[in-house]
Amino acid sequence: MVKFGRRLVSERHEAWAEYYIDYKSLKRLVYEAREDPTKVQAYVDGLKAEINKANAFYTAKEHELGLKLDALERELRSADPRREKEAQKTLVKRVCPELGWLREYVVLNYTAVVKAVKKGNKNLGHTTHAVQLLAGEPIFCSLGLAKLVTRAEMLTVHAAPASERRMEDTC
Q1: With the CA atoms of 162, 164, 166 and 171 taken in that order, what torsion angle do they form, in degrees rounded to the nearest 10?
Q2: In principle, which of 43, 79, 104, 134 could form an S-S bond with 29, CB 3.0–4.6 Å?
Q3: Cα–Cα distance between 169 and 96 in angstroms, integer?
């Protein structure tokens, strides 16, 4: 079984590496707090800071992708076949993969927080519930990404004639 820290590093989108929850540092903070109870607040603060970092990136990326879809939709509705074809290509080759990376980003970061909280509970005697901790965080409860993915899928389906559609052309 692969340890989660290694899995996080191997599965993350490398261009966004600095924006992922730093699970390794959270583990280190847990172990430091276990040895020195005066450092418990550093673990709690570190966990909050990591969640805020992931939230900020997610929110900005979600907004950016929404703007990209707006622009592509305008191009797809233009009367210029060349612009429409270029927009189709951009949608399939750039935006849909980026939406997939963002979905993976959310899942990996959610897992990192759950595991860090579990490790903190076990080693520090806490009873924090990760789901309650994350309940109000946009990265974990926003429907924005789901709406963007659905919108991109609809644009992909409607952008190409049925005779030209392939399964891999959808998000």
Answers
A1: -80
A2: 43
A3: 9
